Amino acid sequence: ARVLQANKGGLMLQVDAVVGFLPVSQLNPDHYPRVPGGDKNRILEHLRQFVGSDLKVRVFDVNSDEEKLILSEKAVWEDEQKNILDSYKIGDIVEGEISALTPFGAFMKFGDGLEGLIHISEIVWQRIDHPKDILKIGDQVKAQIIDLNRSKIYLSLKRLVEDPWKSVKDRYRVGETVEGTIHKVEPFGLMVKLDEEIHGLAHISDLSDKSMGDQRTFLDQFKVGETRRFEIISMEPAEHRLGLRLEGVVGGGKRVARRVAKADEPAPEEEKAVPESGAAEENT
């Protein structure tokens, strides 16, 4: 079908004697607009490059009220990829190239035109703020297939290395005082790096014995990159959790509702965000 024009929602195509609409969400992965911030003007600019070209599409739905066909290029692509996907199974290790980074994960191209998602929680065992902290576009990596869902492929990098939390009790113990580097200041406390593999949480209620007043002002005294001494007050290796208390604090300061973050737990709203150089929505 010939592409007649582009708009911010997709493409208009000539299918025999009628005009059909191909939504952005139904483009195949190679044609999908990977635009920083999901900027609609840049998405439109990307789509305009297809005007005048021919695409292989399938009728996805019929809008009888508007006498319009809804088309899908992705459905054709999925059928073409089925035989290729059938040659893979969960647990297989594949090698490929990082093709895009998003706040919720990284995309990796491998095999014969396949692309899979490495969720941010599957990149490393530690909690990270963004995949770009670890990866960059063009990196050659090995990953394990952890799920296959039609054309969607889910991959993991961290499962190819030993989980450092399995041996955390050999390295640290509850009641021990250790040095830690403040990795991130959150409204609920401090994310603290004890070493490159083990991170812990010092909840805001474990940072002072005194009433702290305004929490934001109180937390301003702690700086990312600063080294402080903390007492280990809890360890849950299976849950990847380690609780810390600032040295000298006995407890009993202003208590607030605890939300104990896992060391590898993604930050809130990550999956609602859009790619840095990736798709305007998650799409594999």
TrEMBL record:
Gene3D superfamilies: Nucleic acid-binding proteins. Residues 1-74, 91-158, 175-247 form the S1 motif domain. One of its GO terms (molecular function) is nucleic acid binding. Residues 259-284 are annotated as: Disordered. Pfam families: S1 (PF00575). InterPro entries: NA-bd_OB-fold (IPR012340), Ribosomal_protein_S1 (IPR052757), S1_domain (IPR003029). Residues 261-274 have a biased composition (Basic and acidic residues). It comes from the Bacteria. Coiled coil: none annotated. PROSITE patterns: S1 (PS50126). This is RNA binding S1 domain protein.
